[in-house]
């Protein structure tokens, strides 16, 4: 494949993934097509239950998982691999073991999209380009479609390199589901996917780097986060005749929302609190018996995160006590904080400096968000390895997680070449 054809293929992959966005644990089409492509390139594959632990927080309902599987098949999923990744086991790990001395180098790419509608504004690039999401209420609004397309492009280059005898050590490509909500990383680490990795590389597009050509060599202060659902259970009663017989779950939820958002910030580091959704009630003229909040807290480190979690429990129990309802807090995902290994970030900086199109290399930046790449980073670093999460600059159609979000296709080429440059700097790619 010519260099120009390789770029066109990468862009076509990204746009296809964007058009067929799939949320966490439902990425059947994405995972199956990734697996089929990598098998065709000669990689040894582990998929599904081999690489994703059974304990998966925030798993959608059985009906949603079945609908995702059926939708994926109708949209061209590979039937063989779709059967292996269905029911929320949508991880893929591909390995090239060269037989030549060298480290185990892993590259991690997340594959899931977000819940949320994509803009239909004619000025929106995906609408204009004909690749706006066809999955109602799901949108690649965080750039994971770009990450996956970059991963496939890198895979193609490495397959050519091993055939030509220009690769050493072992390369492990990790295509991870359910990053949104911090669910897939911990589940893959629990399945042993991070075991034996000497060097771990990953990237995120557009975070603290919103100009195409900019590279952040290694993020620091990836925030620890806890995702949780709060359920209030009260008692229905006629709102006019016998309201005193009811126990109002929506009232409890309203009290909780106000006081969750009012939790005092911590003086020793950054904290974040968000209530993302609120649902509740059954009908207009009945005291509502149920309410659900989907929430998250984030912090610089686990100690401060523990403070936030304690305050959450106090707020929820207090709201329940005031209104006479029952309450529970259920974990929906989460991961610890992490920092890139400085020596490996320096490798990224050297590699990026030699890539066409790179105009600025920054040594580091605070991530300011959470990402379960941290689960892999912490596992690798705890075992004595090195890990880095670098930033890939891109012009954006809107901020992350917004309806008008889209990325610059030109950034994909830079991302591919930075990964390949890192492998050259590490001495595993000739």
What's a quick, concise take on this entry?
The chain contains twelve helices and 16 strands. The protein is α/β, with parallel strands linked by helices and 430 residues long. It is globular.
Radius of gyration: 23 Å
CATH class of the largest domain: Alpha Beta
The overall number of domains is 2
Classify the secondary structure makeup into a structural class. alpha/beta
What is the end-to-end distance? 19 Å
According to CATH, the homologous superfamily of the largest domain is Zn peptidases
SSE topology string: HHEHHEEEHEHEHEEEEHEEHEHEEHEH
Average of the residue pLDDT scores: 97
Beta-strand percentage range = 15-25%
The number of distinct helices, counting runs of at least 4 residues, comes to 12
Placed side by side, the strands forming the largest sheet appear as 1-2-6-3-7-16-8-14
Number of strands: 16
Assign a percent range to the helix content: 25-40%
Largest sheet features: 8 strands, mixed
Low-pLDDT residue intervals, each spanning 5 or more residues: none
CATH topology of the largest domain: Aminopeptidase
CATH architecture assignment name of the largest domain:
3-Layer(aba) Sandwich
Characterization of this structure:
- With 430 residues, the protein is of the alpha/beta class.
- The chain has two domains: 3-222 and 337-425, Zn peptidases (Aminopeptidase, 3-Layer(aba) Sandwich); 224-335, Alpha-Beta Plaits (2-Layer Sandwich).
- 36% of the residues lie in helices and 21% in strands.
- It is built from twelve helices and 16 strands.
- The chain has helices spanning 3-19, 28-40, 62-74, 79-85, 125-129, 144-163, 184-190, 249-261, 302-323, 342-353, 373-382, 409-425, and strands at 44-47, 92-97, 104-110, 114-115, 138-139, 170-176, 199-205, 214-216, 219-220, 224-233, 271-280, 290-299, 326-335, 360-362, 365-366, 386-392.
- Helix 1 runs antiparallel to helix 6, helix 2 (28-40) packs across helix 4 and helix 8 packs antiparallel against helix 9 (302-323).
- It is globular and about 80 Å long.
